[in-house]
Amino acid sequence: MNISLILTKQCNLRCRYCFETHENVFMSGETALRAIDMAVSDGSRSVGVSFFGGEPLLCKPLIYQCVEYSKQFPGVKFNWNMTTNGLLLDEEFLQFACQEKIDVAMSHDGLMSRVNRLDPGGKDCLNRLDEKLRLQLRYRPGAFIMATVTPETAGMVYDSMKHLTGMGVRRFNLAIDARPCAGWDEDSMDLLSEQLGMLGNFILEKFREGEDVYFNPFEEKILAITKDRPCHVCRLGKRKPYIDWDGAVYPCIQFGGVPEYRMGNVREGIDEGRRETIYQKSLQKPSFCQGCAMEKRCVNDCACLNFQQNGDMAQVSGEQCAWQRMLITRADEMARKMLETDEKHFARRYISPKHPSGTNQG
User: Fold this and answer.
1) CA 145, CA 105: separation in Å to the nearest integer?
2) Are 260 and 266 in contact (CB under 8 A)?
């Protein structure tokens, strides 16, 4: 079993696109350890645990406690990962993360941070984020970096991603502000598509120089073709249940606190009948996606994202559809030029890849 632990809903930033409530609530040690017991109880020899928030590094002692507790299960391999804004990263924690093999994914929007990643006083924290990113890369050169773009920052994507790669980042993700109130329109979407084209050309230039830069939204679209596989499989409620700070279990973070999607709690376990009902409901495909040539390369099956944007697991928003179409179009433009430039390099990267590109750890 894989689980996500929401250690707190509190955060030391106030990002403008955040959907969290920043409640001053924290998971207790008892709840966290019971969640680990629940994950181990199904007899699996491998357990994945994600530390999430809010900002999970506000709860460093609890992270240490969870990792130490797991050592009483010597026959179980624990795979740890976490998502952090990075501001509380320090030498001690990064040394601990390396020692215990905790995969630390840091969120950083590049130059877009000046607009959207603000501290509680309303000040941007780009310089502080850069300082922590340098520290992270010193310990983990292949660290995965996650960025978010809003309509207001759509024209800053290219410069922001160049900012990150200039600091040494080689693996990064980009998501759009998926809140219904985000305010995407045709003009901001067109500008974002133009920026993605520029980013694709930049990655192509790196490819021609023999250097691989992995932009995950492009990678998954290309690999869906070269590996003949869907670029996304949701498996809602089964892939990674979400454990809220109070121990309640939900199928994914977007459903947290919604009573009709509660699947149990860490004390009594998961109601398997309830989980199966939710999973089966998530399999309903959006009717207008059926037969679309891009269906296999789209995330239309992400019930969590659909629910967040529409309140309906089986409906894809117009913004998400436009985002997926532009990703596929721009990824294919880049891939064709890569193939024409160096077929062998392209094959090493996409036919039989042995590189660290991967998906969001969360």
Assistant:
1) 6
2) no
